[in-house]
Amino acid sequence: MNDFTLPAAAGSVVGRRYPDNFDVVHLTQEPLLAVVADGMGDGEGSRTAGRTAVDVFTEQVRTAGDALDAAALRAAVAEAQVQVSAAGERIGRLTGCTLTALAASPAGLWLVQIGDSRGYRLRDGLLEQLTVDHTMAWLGAVNGWYAFDSPEAHSARYQLTRYVGHSAHPEPDVLNVGTRPGDVLLLCSDGVTDQVPYARIREVLQWAATPDRQVRQLLADTEKAGGDDNATAVIVHVPPRQAGAS
Description:
Layout: E1 8-13, E2 23-29, E3 32-38, H1 44-64, H2 70-91, E4 99-105, E5 108-114, E6 118-123, E7 126-129, H3 136-142, H4 151-156, E8 173-177, E9 184-188, H5 190-193, H6 198-206, H7 211-224, E10 231-237
Antiparallel strand pairs: 1-10, 2-3, 3-4, 4-5, 5-8, 6-7, 6-9, 9-10
Helix pairs in contact: 1-2
């Protein structure tokens, strides 16, 4: 996976609800490392958590190098937990964020998830959510406690069961993601998925367009929908197989 560059692009918009952007995005392409963090709330704790988590996680991944594996990724999130929690003690208020990442290694692509930002894969026209939302709303919908679009579910969306900065230092989900030529991968904060319908996300990812064009369109769609949250997206293309390639 480190032998070639995957076309990718990232972007983020403030929207109209908040005075500043409390999402943090990182993208490097050689080797691929994409990270999306969404701060909890709109204060200094949110800003510090996102920035700290992304900086610590990316540094830990770089340090691991070709030895990057599931254990190293869990250790990277664990270090982010320690440093975000320490920042929260200094600030004296809620300091937490989500973190969703794609990282390339000799073993392929790793997907890391903690919180309710999301990772998707488009393959052969099917858009699949590869991550699980770590919220009470997700648990409630899966277990039939209430309808997904009910008032109870809406309230439970804000009850995260795992995030960076949580006092229990929960571990992330870590998945080794197989890819095929033509796959399109998306990481995004809930400012995208709460405002852009599934069918529209799939439509944009199916366009014969560059990742940058697709990112800009998804973010424009969030603003057209009202801009009710900061919105962040990273799109990665797995190049289609070339004619005559084995």
